Amino acid sequence: MKSIKIGLIGFGTIGTGVIKTLQTQRELLTARTGMSLELVKIADLDITTSRGVEVAPSMLTTNVNDILENPEIDIVIELIGGYEPAKTFILRALRNGKHVVTANKALLALHGKEIFETAMQHHVDVGFEASVGGGIPIIRSMREGLVANNFSEIYGILNGTTNFILTEMTEKGEDYHKVLQHAKELGYAEADPTFDVEGIDATHKIIILTYLAFGQYVTMDQVFTEGISQLHPIDIKLAGELGYKVKLLAISRRIDDRIEVRVHPTMLHAQHLLAKVDGSFNAVYAVGDIVDSTMSYGRGAGMMPTASAVLSDIVDIARGINSGVANRVPLVYPLSASEHALTIQPRNRFLARYYLRFTVLDRPGVLSSIAGVLSDHKISIASVIQKEVHPVDSVPLVMLTYEAYEHDMQEAIQKIEKLDGVTAKTVVIRALL
């Protein structure tokens, strides 16, 4: 029986899950692959702290070269995260003829082009199923299962932390900061949750999905990104009364010869499939010209769901090694002439409908002044809601608009907030209607 030797860099939460899976599912994996998947070396700066999983002391090392320069190791798993030294380790592994499996979405979003091209040059593979959607097999679905489709739209709930927070705010009406603290206590949020709550993590992931869907590399500064930290319970409540739910949505769309990529809180019809994705779950909704609409749903993070994705890559690469095949599915997309012509739309030039909540003095003329500014910027009002509030020094004024350009909306908001009678910062939520 052929033995595939594996080296693991990073003995953290996900690394521990990978080791547990290799141990507990050994017989299943052997039966399904006809090979022995043998973890031979684990590199980490801390090799003394117990992780609750038994490994032979001889497998542990603090020297990553024991993996990168070991000629017997076929597959290197990178699970340390971040940009460096992860990038250096991955490139060295590839140049040494080793296949790589990684969950590092941030690194792939910024340096995927270099990593994929290096792998192709050295005839080795990069598995990155765990980089998007945790245990959801969306990468393999898009690369293989949906390979016959030209995609037009990708919508994703791609961050479990923000989805948990928004679900709690929706169901309990609680303040963002209170729910965030609860998420930290439950382990859903990091001590520093900035990457999650400000939409950066979801941006990394939609960049990867954009590459898979359209064969185009997108940079972080080309993606309109807004997080959930400025959302208020009143806006989520009002959205619910209007028949919508608020989700942090990652969007990638092809419009003629342009690609539009953005991440922001979004009002979805309550009956939309994505609106029903609650808690820490993730989902990806994709539209192809042959298959029509599909949605993949599941645990978006966590030790074992992510380990499941890592093992799927290990098995896929191991089968390729056993067959003497690498790059069976190209990492660098061979694009058609029409795809080469695609451009990335400027980040503030997309069309959307808008929920606007102004805080205004309850006196004549304020509404007409706001409406006049919106009209000057080619923004049409679909409906207006004003609820009586006591005391009535300032009151919320809510509007839903028809489609408008983001840059027009931004300019209009800047002028409206300078109007006499507008007493607070405007709340803006884009809508997918």
TrEMBL record:
User: What reaction is this protein's catalytic activity?
Assistant: L-homoserine + NADP(+) = L-aspartate 4-semialdehyde + NADPH + H(+)
Q: Which organism is it from?
A: Candidatus Moduliflexus flocculans
InterPro entries noted in UniProt = ACT-like_dom_sf, ACT_dom, Asp/hSer_DH_NAD-bd, HDH, HDH_cat, HDH_CS, NAD(P)-bd_dom_sf
The alphabetical list of record keywords is: Amino-acid biosynthesis, Metal-binding, Methionine biosynthesis, NAD, NADP, Oxidoreductase, Threonine biosynthesis
Enumerate the cofactors the protein uses: a metal cation
Which PANTHER family does its entry note?
HOMOSERINE DEHYDROGENASE
Q: What is this protein called?
A: Homoserine dehydrogenase
What does the organism's lineage look like at the top? Bacteria, Candidatus Moduliflexota, Candidatus Moduliflexia, Candidatus Moduliflexales, Candidatus Moduliflexaceae
Q: Name one Pfam family in it.
A: Homoserine_dh
The segment(s) forming the ACT domain are 355-430
Query: Which residues bind NADPH per the record?
Result: K105
Which pathway is it part of?
Answer: Amino-acid biosynthesis; L-methionine biosynthesis via de novo pathway; L-homoserine from L-aspartate: step 3/3; Amino-acid biosynthesis; L-threonine biosynthesis; L-threonine from L-aspartate: step 3/5
